[in-house]
Amino acid sequence: MIVAYPDVLSLVQHLAPTWRKPQHTNFAQLVCALLERGSLVLSELARVMPASTQKLHGRLKRIDRFLDNPRLDEPVLFLRWLTLAYRLGDDLPPASDGRPILPLLLDTVYFEPFALLVVTVPCGSRGLPVALTTYHRYQLAACFPPSTTWPSPLGLPPRPRRRKRTKVPASTVVEYDSQNKIEAELIAYVLHLASPALLAVIIADRGFARAALFIDFNQRNQPFVIRFDAQTHIRVPTSLAPDLPTEGLPKDVLGLRPGHRVWCPQAYYTKEDQVPIRLLAVWDPDQKEPWYIATNLDTAEQTETLYRWRMRLECANRDEKTGVILREGGDHHALTSVLHLHRLLLALCTAEWLCALVGLQAWRDLPEQFQALRSAERPSAQPAPVGPSLPAPEQRPVLQPPGSSALPEPTALAPAVGAPIARLTSPSTPPKPASLPYPEWATDLHSLDAGPSAPPPVLPHRGSTPKLPEWLRLFAARGWLSYVRLGKEIIFSTAFHQLLHRMVRWLAGYLWPKTPTWLPWQLRYRLRHWWFDSS
Length: 535
Known about the structure:
By secondary structure, this protein is α+β, with helices and mostly antiparallel strands. 34% of the residues lie in helices and 14% in strands. Strands 3-2-1-6-7-12-11-10-8-9 form a ten-stranded mixed sheet, with helices on both faces. The longest helix is centred in the last third of the chain and has 40 residues, at 338-377. The model is unreliable at 380-437 (pLDDT under 50).
């Protein structure tokens, strides 16, 4: 049984501050069960649910009731996933209007007879989910909250009220006329949730290319980078070469050869609609076929970079369906309700975020700790100089191999659950006023710098691979591990749980500006039962 349940519960509480206590508990148990079992079969998940004394039948009924919950605020999860993606996502040169670019990768993952339509943001070698919906492939019934209840990305979420029902933007099952309308609804949904300070760019494969979507994007000035099929009719204003036609199939019009790139600032998509686009054609020497990419961005460099980042989504899909998170195929779920699968996939994406954040926390902490351990093992070696970003040698945590005692905290821990709030300050500092019962670490802005690191560099698919760092050999016998897989190894290793503690504590401070404006009694309850669980 996974032993990190208190930390997973605390993470869920900070990711979904407007949920009720039973919703936090059930969702955290589902996340733990998915990590433990790696399956979407409800009976398998019920057998390994942590912190539950019920029999198997009672656990199954409890899971069914939660998956049917009509008051689950899902957009609050998406808003916080986006907030984390703003910090961890890869950077691009700003757009022409000066706004930073936010790449939104759109793709479909099949869980027969259902499909997951997911939007991710590239973070290193993976694309981390920020919004999703699930629909039935044949009945075209999808899960969306009513558009009138979509929250604003600028405001704070509403404060839960005791014994008063508030309007919750919970997903309901809605039937659509076509799959195209489901895709358009999710695109409108995620664009509504994204920060207006960023320029969101929709990036998708050729399965999403269609004239109606390009027309809609052009009318709304929505940037996009979408690949289209080689059998699509295109037209250019003037011939690119004397022996090339101005319209027809892309291979005939562009005359592309392996190793070449062609950029057309003005082109027209399809013979009937003649949608104005910018066209980039890329044919790498080792590719079987070229890429034909439609866009309305200004430069070919940004267009090519953004579409190459789309490949990171495929790695994330393998992690979710048949890799790191799920060890069995995603089609073996035996579910008949699209809403049930939708809620399970919410837990699955939360488990991926948990593994990613823990893995990135390890990339920040473990190299320093391993270097300190190596220095301590060499008596003749001179101690490493203490820089402004490193703690003193006597304060550095000592790296422990798996199976030994847990890592010590580099700083003093907060008191246990139920301890008086006044004891949170050191004896040398005066106690804080009773009207501001914040923990000292929660108001220390420098603690935000000790959170997860930026994603490690993406390894090249071809050519030589860099040497594996020594500290990473504790988790990998050969070859590199993605930071998502590294995070899962750390979660199941009791010797490194202090990394999980520090990550959850950082998450609490980082997401604090996005929490509701609590009443005093609500704040006291959360200080006692949320943050202390990860102390």
